[in-house]
Specification:
The chain is mainly α. The chain has one domain: Tetracycline Repressor, domain 2 (Orthogonal Bundle), CATH 1.10.357. Helices cover 77% and strands 0% of the residues. The chain is built from 9 helices and no strands. The longest helix is centred in the first third of the chain and has 28 residues. It is elongated and about 60 Å long.
């Protein structure tokens, strides 16, 4: 049992090192050697835990998403109304704690690998489905089923689009602006609902 636990700790360290390198270098510039150096390990140790770069990328994508998933779950537990559930998801995805250029660079570079890597495509599909389901849990209590589907898709597309802009280096785009754009969309779609999280910029 102890050996298994130590092994998982080491894998987690290597996954986090891969994410850090991607934040600086992007997926194209991320090599096994750079990840090993970031983790203070050898390439041989890295290959002991991951068969190849593709498997490392898959695990890095899981690692990058794990913090977001946990934050969403925590915020949803505190939400007391459908609109608070929706806003919890928005803040988890666009808040200052996560909506930062290095994270955008890493995320976009991983997404660029998706068309070539079926495993990454599968994970991306899971992440999108999870966001859609979470958004639907709020929207379906406020609007018709068809409108809930449309609004969930629109909000997830807005969030993805903002991350793309961040990832390609748009220096004018801040978390406050991103949150304001999401809030404006909700205010237009739900004119009779008070939207939490007013943002000034």
């Amino acid at each position: 049992m102890a050996l298994t636990k130590i092994s998982e700790i080491r894998r987690r360290e290597l996954r986090r090192a891969a994410v850090e390198v991607m934040r600086r270098e992007g997926a194209a510039g991320t090599t096994l050697e750079k990840v090993a150096q970031e983790a203070g390990a050898s390439k041989g140790i890295l290959l002991h835990y991951f068969r190849n770069k593709q498997e490392l990328f898959e695990e890095a994508m899981r690692e990058a998403n794990a913090g977001l998933r946990d934050d969403v779950v925590s915020r949803l537990k505190r939400a007391r109304s459908p609109i608070e559930r929706i806003w919890a998801i928005v803040e988890a995805n666009l808040g200052e704690h996560v909506f930062k250029s290095p994270n955008g660079h890493a995320w976009l570079s991983l997404c660029a690998e998706v068309p070539r890597e079926p495993q990454l495509a599968r994970l991306q599909s899971i992440f999108h489905s999870r966001m859609h389901s979470n958004l639907m849990s709020g929207f379906r209590s406020l609007v018709s089923p068809s409108d809930a589907e449309s609004l969930s898709l629109s909000m997830s597309a807005l969030i993805d689009g903002l991350w793309v802009r961040l990832g390609i280096g748009d220096q004018s785009l801040t978390s406050k602006i991103a949150l304001s754009l999401a809030r404006d969309m909700l205010a237009n779609a739900l004119p009779n609902i008070v939207i939490p999280g007013a943002v000034e910029y």
